[in-house]
């Protein structure tokens, strides 16, 4: 995997032009998913914690007695986390769009960009270093405490660079889509304050009209006859956060209009926070109405649960047809790539390629960590192995900012997981070994439809080795990619004959070619902590592989 950038580019151009086959009604289709968003790979960043590109919007004096900027949490041995704003903004994202694009990512998911309160929360239990499920003393730096869902938070835009300008420039200048992170089950912390604070527990309309106000009352004291209380349930849900009333048609209307507003400004997909806290009937209404305006819109939700049968319910058409983040896969990946001597076979159970609970497993967004859990505690080699798997196996890869250099590995939310990344770290990342290998495999996926949407045909999984095909025969494209993975510390030999098709196979990193006969065998040696991807162009001809693909299609 040491080919030069020019060699890689030439090879990818060659494969991109050669994968066309004549369209014909007689050509059998084999495809994991037809949804075009499956071609994307996603870089996830916390907007405030990425890069401060414009210090003029930092609002360092905001909050008065409850300041919002740079609120450190001090831990042992010099460790520091932070629950205040740190300066990340749209300018910082745009300034580093080329960095993200060049790694091979085609979409950016940013944490919510809507208006949040202008003070730190004075209620609740005080947050401490490494603490969880405590909001006292925290700010809305993360964006999930929405107050006006039609208004951009003042910490993010710059002169001439609002959300619409950001999405347009990312799309037109860098080929990057923007994913909007949305919340519908809660607003800001809304009660338990010593004195009612401005904006907390309040919801505003597009014209700035106050629509709802918790008035610092606990949910059980809200009055259903009070118009300002009707946006809220009278039962508690998460900490002191307002529990929005999904039974109220006005709440559904509000969020349909609010998120349509941002879609009209260029958001290309939606990531839904805490989707399991809102009933399916809400999502059915929401998705039907949003997709009536934006046909085919891709949405994926955070249903934080490791039970595949549970999270799969969101994908059903009757529940809104919303894909999900693959938490069972996250659990398996994090364990496998953090543990020396682990077995690749441990990854098989979460795939559910046939007879599984998912309406379509190829549309799941796959990841090994994020901002709400401990970052993966792996070695550099472990991160490299994780990326080799993430960008070749089924699903849409999502990588959390900083993972390209193993940033703050092993830390939880208020222990360093969400620490400010910054321009200096990005410059360091550009020369990091994790980044270098991620860039190579992600760019291969970016240019190979078989790795984006192809059916996955597993061969051998055991110990440090895994081998599988990704096969695509769809809309004039016909590709078979043979993926060989080695997460061991020494080179590994592979001997592949099952389902192997005759014809010219080309390895995507080294440019090696093999012209195989009908009864041929492909022998290869994969370096330590590496991947080899052999590509064959053309229709599937072998009867055994055709039968396997028909089974995978019928029972996907």
TrEMBL record:
In the record, which residues are listed under signal peptide? Answer: 1-18
Any idea where the Glycosyl hydrolase family 13 catalytic domain is?
Answer: 44-445
This chain's protein is named Alpha-amylase family glycosyl hydrolase
Q: What's the short name of a Pfam family annotated to this entry?
A: Alpha-amylase
Q: Which organism is it from?
A: Bowmanella denitrificans
Q: Please give the CDD domains that the UniProt record associates with this protein.
A: AmyAc_bac_CMD_like_2
Q: Which InterPro entries match?
A: GH, GH13_cat_dom
> Matching SMART domains, A to Z?
Aamy (SM00642)
């Amino acid at each position: 995997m040491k080919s030069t950038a020019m060699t890689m580019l030439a090879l990818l151009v060659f494969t991109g032009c050669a994968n066309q086959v004549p369209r014909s009604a007689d050509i059998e289709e084999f495809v994991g998913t037809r949804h075009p968003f499956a071609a994307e790979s996603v870089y996830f960043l916390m907007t405030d914690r990425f890069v401060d590109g414009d210090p003029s919007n930092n609002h360092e004096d905001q909050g008065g007695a409850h300041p919002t900027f740079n609120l450190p949490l001090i831990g042992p041995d010099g460790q520091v986390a932070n629950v205040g704003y740190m300066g990340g903004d749209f300018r910082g994202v745009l300034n580093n769009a080329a960095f993200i694009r060049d790694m091979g990512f085609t979409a950016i998911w940013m944490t919510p960009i809507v208006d949040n309160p202008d003070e730190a929360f004075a209620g609740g239990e005080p947050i401490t270093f490494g603490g969880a499920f405590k909001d006292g003393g925290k700010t809305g730096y993360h964006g999930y405490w929405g107050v006006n869902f039609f208004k951009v938070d003042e910490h993010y835009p710059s002169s001439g660079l609002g959300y619409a300008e950001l999405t347009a420039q990312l799309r037109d200048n860098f080929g990057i889509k923007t994913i909007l992170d949305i919340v519908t089950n809660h607003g800001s912390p809304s009660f338990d304050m010593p004195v009612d604070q401005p904006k907390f527990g309040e919801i505003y309309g597009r014209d700035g009209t106050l629509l709802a106000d918790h008035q610092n009352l606990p949910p059980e004291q809200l009055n259903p006859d009070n118009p300002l209380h009707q946006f809220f349930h009278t039962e508690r849900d998460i900490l002191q956060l307002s529990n929005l009333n999904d039974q109220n048609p006005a709440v559904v209307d509000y969020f349909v209009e609010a998120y349509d507003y941002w879609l009209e400004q260029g958001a290309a997909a939606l990531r839904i926070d805490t989707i399991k806290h809102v009933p399916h009937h809400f999502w059915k209404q929401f998705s039907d109405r949003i997709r009536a305006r934006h046909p085919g819109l891709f949405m994926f939700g955070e249903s934080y649960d490791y039970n595949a049968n549970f999270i799969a319910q969101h994908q059903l058409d009757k529940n809104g047809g919303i894909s999900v983040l693959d938490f069972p896969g996250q659990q398996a990946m994090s364990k496998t790539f953090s543990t020396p001597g682990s077995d690749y076979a441990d990854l098989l159970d979460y795939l559910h390629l046939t007879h599984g609970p998912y309406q379509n497993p190829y549309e799941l967004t796959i990841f090994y960590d994020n901002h709400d859990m401990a970052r993966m505690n792996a070695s550099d080699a472990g991160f490299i192995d994780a990326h080799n798997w993430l960008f070749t196996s089924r699903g849409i890869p999502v990588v959390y900012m900083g993972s390209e250099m193993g940033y703050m590995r092993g830390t939880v939310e208020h222990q360093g997981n969400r620490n400010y990344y910054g321009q200096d770290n990005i410059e360091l990342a550009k020369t990091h070994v994790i980044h270098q290998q991620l860039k190579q495999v992600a760019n291969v996926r970016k240019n190979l439809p078989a790795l984006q949407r192809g059916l996955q045909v597993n061969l051998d999984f055991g110990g440090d080795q895994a081998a599988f095909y990704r096969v695509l025969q769809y809309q004039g494209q016909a590709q078979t990619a043979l993926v060989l993975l080695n997460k061991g510390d020494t080179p590994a030999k592979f001997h592949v004959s099952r389902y192997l098709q005759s014809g010219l196979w080309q390895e995507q990193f080294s440019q090696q070619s093999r012209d195989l006969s009908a009864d041929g065998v492909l022998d290869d040696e994969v370096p330590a902590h590496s991947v080899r991807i052999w590509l064959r162009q053309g229709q599937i001809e072998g009867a055994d592989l055709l039968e396997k693909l028909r089974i995978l299609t019928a029972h996907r």
